[in-house]
Amino acid sequence: MAAPTKPLVSDLVSSISSLPANYVRPDCDRPNLSEVTLDYSIPLIDLQGLHGPDHSKVIKEIAEACKYYGFFQVKNHGVPKEVIDKMLSISREFFHLPVSERMKNYSDDPMKMTRLSTSFNVKTEKVSNWRDYLRLHCFPLEDYIHEWPTNPPSFREDVGKYCKNARELALRLLDAISESLGLERDYMNSALGKHGQHLAINFYPPCPQPELTYGLPGHADPNVITILLQDDVPGLQVLKEGKWIAVNPIPYTFIVNLGDQIQVLSNDCYKSVLHRAVVNCSKERISIPTFYCPSPDAVIGPAPQLIDDDHPPLYRNYSYSEYYQKFWNRGLNSETCLDMFKN
What we know:
This protein has a single domain (about 35-340), classed as Sandwich (Jelly Rolls), CATH 2.60.120. It has nine helices and 14 strands. The chain has helices at about 10, 55-70, 80-95, 100, 140-145, 155-180, 185-190, 260-265, 320-330; strands spanning about 45, 70-75, 115-120, 130-140, 195-205, 215-220, 225-230, 235-240, 245, 255-260, 275, 285-295, 300, 320. The strands form three sheets. It has an eight-stranded mixed sheet with strand order 1-2-10-7-12-5-4-3. Strands 6-11-8-9 form a four-stranded antiparallel sheet, with no helix packed on it. A two-stranded antiparallel ribbon has the order 13-14. GO terms for molecular function: dioxygenase activity; metal ion binding.
């Protein structure tokens, strides 16, 4: 199928004053921005305490955040500021390249490991999302980096360094989450097989009618944990007790959210929570989620240590590739795929 002449939102935006029909959500499925709560946010956890006398206090904070929110922010996480600055700046540079340069990376094939695309899955969805994104697989780095863009010139170097740092942070968080469940520290690490990691550089251009559409509609992540870096423009919202909470960016922090695999591994002690991205009419926004995953052949199921007579296993065992395939085929959906794997 030939790509339309302007497949990307970022190239469409300068020529329109109202939202094209294929981006307009039905009335019952719009952001209702006036109903979003700004009264409180997700917990902010200082990871410095993980390596000292406050260790058990931090583990307890992580346990509570995972149980009651499914989301938390982290500071003193060990990723250098200059690595974060370069990642945000090279991402913006990429999306400001001439269209001919960006389109060298374009593909609407969701199975392609490195690709520039738009919306979510253009082959299956009826209503498009107001976002473009560059998706990169990044572990093991040497298997994929040669497929990445070479323009801007420092792209591979800057993004590669960021990916290594994000992976180190993911591994530390997985140890802490295992411990917070009362499991051996390396339980999650071992459960993921050879591990997988990919990221999306999301670009949300200004939108003429933000109240009619989404950057991304409400969804849960299919992976294990997601580590989100965002610029200073708000857009992320998290569902808590039936209300959408706006999560305002704090410079040099990361937002961590649990994916569906943690919900399964924890046998529902912890939840994978719906979240969404809204857009605005005045500012572009960049967000960079790193998705940390099991390898496709890893077999996922509830941790045996969390199962007893009072807590039977709520899910059957399955391979991660089976899960991920179902997620992609269904598209972004407020119902997660988890129900398909329940006992």
